[in-house]
């Protein structure tokens, strides 16, 4: 009998997962650290931080990438995560039988590269962006020209894994990783493909990013004790901490996966996406579209709110976003929200931005598989306006069948996913 979801569509199974974070290269290492409450936040050593308001981040410093840049590191993280995911799935590692959907950070030249190109341009006086591009497209800098084109990371990943069709690159702010998964789910449901490789990746910890987020007053400035700076849902939270990471899921039509004897790790049962257009960076303070995204994901999965056993929070540790997420969840789950465990892994790995939704998808599925809920660490001063069970400081064993994973991005780009151990 064909495996179909509650709406008669092909059921979408997960057959492979991979993840790289500041606390682990691979899902086993990352999961062990997350459930132990280990923090990957530390002082930045990759570049000088004098004069910066924030000097900490969840960087991944064990990978040798030269020249160090967001596109190259993002590519490397994507490759490592996809290697692990495709390897676990048992599908061909260089002839992947499906499409690629990859969330990548917005790409532009960083200051060190711009300075080198400005010098190489030979121009006196004011140097235009056109001058930089011209210098980058010739001679020894031609590789840079290719590197800083949006879509290059996707092309290289597609070439390595032999994915079908044109790869899809996307960027929907902090919900990007979840959006990549949603696009893969929808393609399989429509019958366009039997498999999809969905990736979120981000290696954007650099001086420019720190300055830009600081100008938005979005980053924590609690530099004295890096490991305790990210404290979602706490009264003394003051901003998010940037992190780097990459994660990948192999999605398959459940019938096709079963036919080839693949081990099914879980299912993506529901996707909900709503944009509020309230502000270029802020979400609407009434949480209307966050609420709508959660409800849409539950409806798509055919589940009532009472069915959710755990919520993997967006939980950035910013004053406004945490309050909005708590309000949105309470609006959907009502009084039960005070009893539903909700925790944020960003307290340990920081906010991996474009990769966050994919990283949290892997952690959600591992929560289901192991029956262990990751904690929200650094929760020593609860916020009385957020009376939720945030699984404070220590992981918890529980029977978890269905997980809601929230991704609420800058500009009100809200994507929620529902994962399950079994079909509804």
UniProtKB/TrEMBL annotation:
Domain of life: Bacteria
Phylogenetic placement of the source organism: Bacteria, Pseudomonadati, Pseudomonadota, Alphaproteobacteria, Hyphomicrobiales
PANTHER family xref list: 3-OXOACYL-[ACYL-CARRIER-PROTEIN] SYNTHASE, MITOCHONDRIAL, POLYKETIDE SYNTHASE-RELATED
Keyword annotations of the record: Transferase
Keyword DNA repair: no
Similarity comment: Belongs to the thiolase-like superfamily. Beta-ketoacyl-ACP synthases family.
Pathway noted in the entry: Lipid metabolism; fatty acid biosynthesis
Domain Ketosynthase family 3 (KS3) span(s) in chain numbering: 9-421
Protein name: Beta-ketoacyl-ACP synthase
